[in-house]
Design brief:
- It contains 14 helices and 5 strands.
- By secondary structure, it is α/β, with parallel strands linked by helices.
Length: about 375
Amino acid sequence: MLVVLCVDLDNDLGRKTGRQTPVIGRESVEGAAVALATADPEDSDVNVLFEGVHLHDDIDDETVEVAAVTGTNGSDVAANRAVGEEIDTVLASLSTGEDVHAIVVTDGAQDESVIPVIRSRVPIDSVRRVVVRQAQDLESMYYTIKQVLADPETRGTILVPLGVLLLVYPLMEIARFFQLPSATFGAVSGLLGGYLLVRGMGLDRTLDAAVERVRTGLYTGRVTLVTYVVAAALIVIGGVSGVETLAERPGTEVLETGAALVYGSVHWLAAAGITASLGHVTDEYLRERFRWRHLNAPFYVLAIAAVLYSVSAFVLENVSLSTLAIVLTASTLLGVFSTLAFAIAESRFASDPKATDRRDTSP
C-alpha cells in the first residue's frame, strides 16, 4: 500500500484553518487544501496538499491513501517530533495487511529536514518538492541563507570581515575630519588583514589554545610565563643590536652581513635561550617532573652561542684562527661533559625504584 504524505512542518494548515491534524483521506485533504487556500492564497502548503490529491488520483496500479501531517511553529526538533507522532497516527489508521511505503510531498528544503523521521517509520519511494514556477528555488535559497547565518562559526567568518570592510570608509572619514595621521587607516587595514589570514589559514584554534595556556599559566603560577616574556624581550634587543652592528659595517658582502648580524645579537639570543630554559626547568621541578637531563639545555645554548659568536667574529676578522679553534673545542667539550654529567646523575637518582615509579607515573 502506498501512502502519500503531505508535510507541513510549521503547521500552517492547523494555525490558519483551525483543522485538527493529521488529515487522512482524499476528500479530507482536498477540503483542507481548499480551506487553507481560502484562508491564505499565497501559502505554498496549498500546492503541497493539491499535489498530494493529484498523486492519489494519478496512481492506479496499487492501493493509495493520502494524508497531511503537520509539525509545530517552533524549533525544528519539536516540529520533527510532532510530525513523527502524526505519522504514527496515520499508519495506525490504515487497515491493511500489505507492506506500506510512502511518497513524501514538501514545498522546500526546510520541510525536507523531517525526511529521516519519516524514513524511520515507513520506507520512502520518492520525495516530491512542489514550488511555484515563478518562484522556483526561492524558498530553498532563503532557507539555505537562514541556516548559514544561524551557524555561529559561519556567521563570524562571513559577517565580521564584511562588517569591518564596511567600517573602513567611515573610519577614513572620521580620521580626515579630526586630521588624524594616515596610520589610522593602515592600522585598521592591518587588523583586517591579520584577521583574514588567521581565519583563512586555520590558526584561530592555535591562537585560542595559546591564550588558554597563558591564562592557565597566570592562575597556576608558572615561571615559564615570566621567563618567556623576558626571553622575547631579549630576542628583540638582540635583533636591534645585530642591526646596529651591521650599520657600523656598511658595504659588507653577504657573508659578512650575516656574520655582523650574528655577532651583534648572539649574546642576547643566548641570554634569552638560557632564561627560557631555566624557567622550564623550574616549572618541571615544581610540578615534580624534573629530570637531570633538563639541565643540559642551558649548557647547550651556551655552547652553540659560543660557536656562533666565535665563527662570526672570525669572519669579521676580530679573532684569530687559533682562538676560533680553542672556542670550538671548548664548546664541544662543554656539551659532551654536561651530557655525561647529567646522565650519570640521573642514573644514580633513578637507582631508587620508588623514585623511578613516581617519575614515570606523573602526569
